[in-house]
Amino acid sequence: MRRLIAAASAAAIVALAGSSAGAADLKACWVYVGPHNDGGYSEGHDKGRQMVDAKLGDKVETSYVENVREGPDAERAIERLARSGCGIIFTTSFGFMDPTIKVAQKFPDVKFEHATGFKTAPNVTTYNARFYEGRYIIGQIAAKMSKTGVAGYIVSFPIPEVIMGINSFMLGAQSVNPDFKIKVVWVNSWFDPGKEGDAAKALFDQGADIIVQHTDSPAPLQIAESRGLHGFGQAHDMISFAPDAQYTAIVDNWGPYYVKRVQAVLDGTWNSQASWEGLKDGMLVMAPYTNLPDDVVAMAKDTQAKIESGELHPFKGPIYKQDGTEVIGEGEQLDDDTLLSMNWYVKGIDDQIPQ
Amino acid sequence: MEALEGPLLTIITASTPLLLAALGELVAERSGVLNLGIEGMMAVGAVCGFAAGYVTGEPIAGVLAAIAAGMAMAAIFAVVTLVFVANQVASGLALTLFGLGLSALIGDAFVGVPGLGVTNIHIPVLSDIPLVGPVIFGLDPLTYLAIALAIGVSWLLFRTRAGLTLRAVGDNHVSAHALGYGVVRVRFIAVLFGGACAGLAGGYLSLVYTPQWTPNMTAGRGWIALALVVFAAWLPARLVIGALLFGAVSYLALYLQGRGVGIASQFLSMLPYLTTIIVLVLISRNQTLLRVNTPACLGQPFVPDR
């Protein structure tokens, strides 16, 4: 009798599990490296996912897994999503690159989209936003507004995305003030409010008066606010945390891209590509310019317009490496491949890239 | 000289949450209970403190809520390990996981919301003395509380009868029980105190240090506090040294990076842990000192046999 009940309940569970997968046409899943509400990078992706829910909710069921560490654990998380019936999986951090490729090989019918990486496969697309365009603009603003000529730059890990950002910021700053300096602190984490805040304090104590970050919490801006200094928000408009300190922020805008790609899966037109759009296509937007004099706002808007029209490219030559060697000459432009594998600093930066 | 002011203030404020959490754990461990759930208690303290402060607009409400939340978490642990005599290590780890998850759940509504921030005190003449002023007379109220707590715990443990009873319970609970001391009662109170301090430490993070709530904002500080207690040989004075040292080297690591000194950032990240362990181990070399101060019944379950 007991065995009969066990068998019946097992069958019922299997039937239930099977039927729940067929509720929507497509299941779209996201993997976040941090909390879905971190007030920064991962929250930007989650807002994009919510846009998919809003626009395609009747045909698509969305879900997410958060706080997935980059590395072996990521492979487990991505595989679990693939097994549970996800039709398209968005892995939103650079460190998910190899795990995504590995899982994609095992599940050729599932589509994968990897953010900020550079490895593709027949069922793996990469997508990114040209954040360096935003970095160039804030570099110009920093050089115009800094009284000490030194900015503090808080970063996480030395991946090409981050190095590209530092270089673009520096080139923007140097276009206004050729002697502008930055001090770089590597906190080895995408998200650690305490450490980021401490790094900001250490940088301010050393003479920086503007803070820039490539980490995900609003802590550095809060420190800037408490000291009457200024900075830039990252991935998210952080003005509510620092009403008097934030000049602007580079805001990720993944929503329209996600809607486009999920719709492509529904239409059957999805294919593997390497997408890298910028200000022109709205993949990133600049938060409203605040706490700035009108002429600086005008300059920033002008630069933004020039970048969108293609007239200005942050990585247009001449560009020199730290040791002085020329990378490209006048009139030339760094191509996407060079940017995506960037592991050298431009001239004028006094830091060493950690190996 | 002014250049030292900023760093000194940062170091002291960075050490405060560690000191608070570690002091509470020291008292609990001196009574013989090993509570590994500091991280969880800190997280819940942080979120409740932030929530209460945000909703009421009063920092003091936040502080009290943080303490209460920490005590509530500790009460769960105390019931499980002292009344039901469950394994303390497993229960503590479970408490950490539970606390981290619960805090994220409660905190979901408060992410992306700027917090109150508790301002530093300002004494008219004293706080304005060039270097000494802000560092000694211009700290935030909770840091002063931490210092007072360190002195108070030290005095209580070594100069009062109650402290003697507590240490007796931690050293030999069977004899203490035979002498008529309420072992479970003493341990319960000690664990609640530990929870209150851990909650306060968490509240400090979300109300003073970085006035915001984000999941996992404790970032492993509970584990650091736990280690500090052991390496300080369960002595409050050494705990203060350990906490300050950890804060100082953490700050130095970031400062050196900004200076452009060519040391690898990963090594610098490791430096605070390494330095604190080395220094504390060196100053606690005396075997007799260690034997005298280690609570002999730490982590052992106690069931009154009658």
In words, what does this structure look like?
The complex is a heterodimer of chains A (355) and B (306). Chain A has 355 residues and is of the alpha/beta class. Chain A folds into two domains: 23-130 and 254-281, 3-Layer(aba) Sandwich (Rossmann fold); 131-251 and 286-340, Response regulator (Rossmann fold, 3-Layer(aba) Sandwich), CATH 3.40.50. Chain A has helices at 2-21, 41-56, 72-83, 97-106, 131-145, 160-176, 193-205, 219-226, 255-267, 294-309, 336-340, and strands spanning 26-31, 60-65, 88-91, 111-115, 124-129, 150-155, 181-186, 210-213, 230-235, 246-252, 274-277, 284-286, 319-320, 326-328. In chain A, the strands form three sheets. In chain A, strands 2-1-3-4-5-11 form a six-stranded parallel β-sheet, with helices on both faces. A six-stranded mixed β-sheet of chain A has the order 7-6-8-9-10-12, sandwiched between helices. Chain A is globular and about 85 Å long. The N and C termini of chain A lie far apart (65 Å). The model of chain A is unreliable at 18-22 (pLDDT under 50). Chain B is an all-alpha fold. Chain B has helices spanning 2-30, 38-56, 59-83, 88-107, 132-137, 141-159, 161-171, 173-178, 183-209, 221-231, 236-259, 265-283, 287-293. The mean pLDDT of chain B is 90. The A-B interface holds A 35, 37-39, 43, 67, 152, 183-188, 191-195, 197-199, 201-206, 208, 217-219, 222, 226, 240-242, 350-352, 354-355 and B 3, 6-7, 10, 14, 104, 108, 111-114, 117, 205, 209-212, 214-217, 219, 221, 250-251, 254-255, 257-260, 262, 264-266, 269.
SS content category of chain A: alpha/beta
Domain module tally of chain A: 2
Helix fraction of chain A by DSSP (H/I, runs of at least 4) = 40-55%
Oligomeric nature of the chains: heterodimer
Question: Quick recap of the structure?
Answer:
By secondary structure, chain A is an alpha/beta fold. Helices cover 41% and strands 19% of the residues of chain A. Chain A has eleven helices and 14 strands.
